[in-house]
From TrEMBL:
Organism of origin: Streptomyces cyanogenus
Start and end residues of each stretch annotated as Disordered: 406-426
Name of the molecule in the record: Glycosyl hydrolase
Domain of life assignment: Bacteria
């Protein structure tokens, strides 16, 4: 029997969203967790807001840390393991950075020695507080922290790829110092895979930390360009999982689909369950998948202002904790008997150079070639151009056929869904 894929959800509290840390109500949290556990999921990802927990560089609030531990204990009582994101950072279009890093105290988040000392102490403290909890999976350094390092952020803390790697290495070490032996990782949004000038690179994601995290959002141009029921939209999560493997040094490094959701109106509410069915079916056909964690548990309350419209309706559950159809889809997947996916023997060549990442993005030739292969019935993975002739590497991954984007037929030859943009000639 293959190892079961983990199924979980990113926990967004039903009352107060992540501002619940200001008025922490453990009874409300328990009720939320009851609703999550009832779906048959096995883990949650939790987001302490960094400025609320470390409002001063040398003050990590003990009461806030105790509340985080209480939440983790409540989850464990319901059979839910817990991953904790440390540096929040960025959530749902809002930045949460402590005052000691901004305006009159403006310092680079990734290179200033005082800031990085404070960050390391914070991550170490959270990890240590949870280290003896059996249900604690480990730390994620932060949520999509790479968005602070380049455009389109309006005020980026610019760094080089080398500086990004040094920062990640130090933060991961701080997590491991606090909680040795747990799974510690970092998480970037898809600019790490798609944006040429993004200093957080695919290699960082695929080689640093105990497993690779990918975040799949089809509002990145995929659904807009190809349509909501297209091959690229329904296979986007699987594509990111397989794309990440090109840069991994370990042939079977585990990959965590740490965020995936059905964003309206690109994925209308009435189509969300079907989108989830397709997304899960395809990503579960990826070998070495560690888990799937849906975004998110509960809808954002409509009483809260200024969120992008799509953020209010992403939950598996309503604000009064009722499951939606999309929740039933995830619950069904979690309860099915696992089946080991076959090895993917065909590999599409992708450029190793970080400055060529846009070829892998929506509209790029690598992106389009991958989905042409899928539409034609193939189950492709990816390999770096620098490894395409490395027989040992290919054999370790079970790759028997290597193709380049220019070798792939320009028009899908099979399947009922198109990977051609709706406005493109067919």
């Amino acid at each position: 029997m293959p190892a079961a894929v983990r199924f979980g959800v990113n926990y967004t509290p039903s009352e107060g969203w992540f501002h619940h840390w200001l008025d922490f109500d453990l009874d409300s949290v328990r009720a939320d967790l009851d609703a999550i556990a009832a779906l048959g999921l096995d883990h949650i990802r939790v987001f302490p807001l960094w400025p609320y927990f470390q409002p001063n560089r040398t003050l990590i609030r003990p009461r806030a840390v105790d509340q985080l531990v209480a939440l983790a204990d409540a989850a464990a009582e319901r059979g839910l393991d817990v991953n904790v994101d440390g540096l929040q950072g960025h959530l749902s279009s809002f930045d949460f950075l402590p005052a000691w890093t901004r305006t009159w105290h403006r310092r680079n988040l990734f290179t200033d020695p005082d800031v990085t000392d404070g960050q390391a102490a914070y991550l170490r403290t959270l990890a240590a507080a949870l280290a003896d909890r059996p249900a604690f999976l480990g730390m994620t350094v932060g949520n999509e922290v790479n968005q602070f390092a380049a455009g389109p952020h309006p005020d980026p803390d610019r760094i080089t790829p080398g500086e990004a790697e040094r920062w990640l290495t130090r933060m991961l070490a701080a997590c491991a110092e606090g909680a040795p032996g747990r799974l510690h990782l970092h998480a970037s949004y898809d600019a790490a895979w798609y944006q040429d000038d993004q200093p957080f690179t695919p290699g960082h994601s695929a080689r640093l930390g105990d497993l690779t995290a990918v975040h799949s959002w089809v509002f990145n141009g995929t659904a807009q360009r190809y349509g909501r029921t297209s091959v690229p939209t329904e296979h986007h999560a699987a594509y990111l999982v397989e794309l990440s493997k090109a840069w991994a040094d370990e042939p079977h490094r585990p990959v965590w689909l740490q965020e995936v959701g059905a964003p309206a109106p690109l994925v209308p509410a009435e189509h969300a369950a079907a989108f989830a069915e397709e997304t899960l079916a395809h990503v579960l056909d990826c070998p070495d998948l560690w888990g799937v964690t849906w975004w998110c548990s509960h809808d954002v309350p409509r009483t809260l202002a200024d969120f992008p419209a799509l953020e209010y309706s992403l939950g598996l559950l309503t604000n009064d904790r009722r499951p939606k159809d999309i929740a039933r889809v995830l619950a069904g997947a979690a309860r099915r008997t696992p089946r080991a996916p076959a090895v993917r023997g065909t590999a599409l060549v992708v450029p190793a150079a970080p400055g060529r990442r846009s070829r892998c993005a929506p509209g790029g030739d690598v992106f389009d070639a991958f989905f042409r292969l899928v539409a034609d019935g193939a189950r492709p993975t990816t390999v770096l151009d620098t490894r395409a002739d490395d027989k040992d590497h290919l054999a370790a991954r079970g790759i028997t056929d290597v193709v380049t984007p220019d070798q792939v037929l320009p028009i899908p030859q099979g399947g009922t869904r198109s990977c051609t943009p709706p406005d493109a000639p067919s």
